[in-house]
Structure formats: C-alpha cells, structure tokens
Automatic annotation (TrEMBL):
Pfam families: C2-set_2 (PF08205). The keyword Disulfide bond applies. InterPro entries: CD80_C2-set, Ig-like_dom, Ig-like_dom_sf, Ig-like_fold. It comes from Daphnia galeata. Residues 20-98 form the Ig-like domain. It comes from the Eukaryota. This is Ig-like domain-containing protein. Keywords: Disulfide bond.
C-alpha cells in the first residue's frame, strides 16, 4: 500500500505545505489481496471517498484517487487515511497523511483588510479626540 501525489511520487506522513485555495490530489494504490480489496479514503473518522478503480492484473491493483478542492484553514493538520479491506474478519490496512498549509498565504490574503481596519480605527480615534 502506498500514497502518491498526482505525479506518482510517494508522499511522506506530512504533506505540503500547500497554499490556501489549492487543490490536493492523492492516489492510494494497493497491490495484491484475494479478493481485490476495497480502497476508501477517510478524513479523521469519516469516510469521504469510496470510488475505487480496480485494474485486473496478476497482482490485482486497486487504487482510489482523492481530490480535495480549495484547501482552507480548516484543513490544517487534517489527517487523511487510505483504508484497504477485503474482509470484515480483520482490520483494514491503513496509511495516513497529514495536511500542512502555508501560514503566509493567510496573511498575504488578509493583509489589505487588516491594514484597512487599522487605518479606519486610527482615523476614528483621531476624529474622536478633536
């Protein structure tokens, strides 16, 4: 079992950092198993994708592509897990990654609004004191 990015490169336990509003594509690939396992994606304890593609070959490769659109602050440190199971008699094989986001993108995006609030507050204070 392995998790790769959209380019087929294996990913580490912590992925990123990504900018806010980015699209994240992860591929979980499972080889072997009889019967071929069901491959699902989970976010924390909730299943978020169960649409696996099975390629019938000698090894029986199953894969599931996860695409998350518009990453945001709520995705920071989110744990995504790929589960592979071909029986209910045992625990599924699991591999997890954690999403890391750039902090700078938040400040760049909101810098103008923060500056505007500061200027308005300063102007109000100056007008009040006269």
């Amino acid at each position: 079992m392995k998790i790769t990015n959209e380019k087929g490169v294996d990913v580490d336990d912590i992925i990123g950092p990504f900018d806010e509003d980015a699209t994240l594509i992860l591929v979980c690939i499972v080889t072997g198993g009889n019967p071929t396992p069901e491959v699902t994606w989970w976010q924390e304890e909730r299943m978020i994708d169960r649409h696996a593609e099975v390629r019938h070959s000698e090894q029986g490769v199953a894969r599931n592509v996860l695409q998350l659109e518009r990453l945001g602050r709520v995705d920071l440190r989110t744990k995504l897990s790929c589960h592979a199971s071909n029986t209910q008699l045992s625990q599924p094989l699991t591999k997890s990654v954690e999403i890391e986001l750039n902090r700078e993108s938040y400040y760049k995006k909101h810098f103008f609004l923060l500056l505007l609030r500061y200027l308005l507050f300063t102007l109000r204070c100056d007008a009040s004191s006269r």
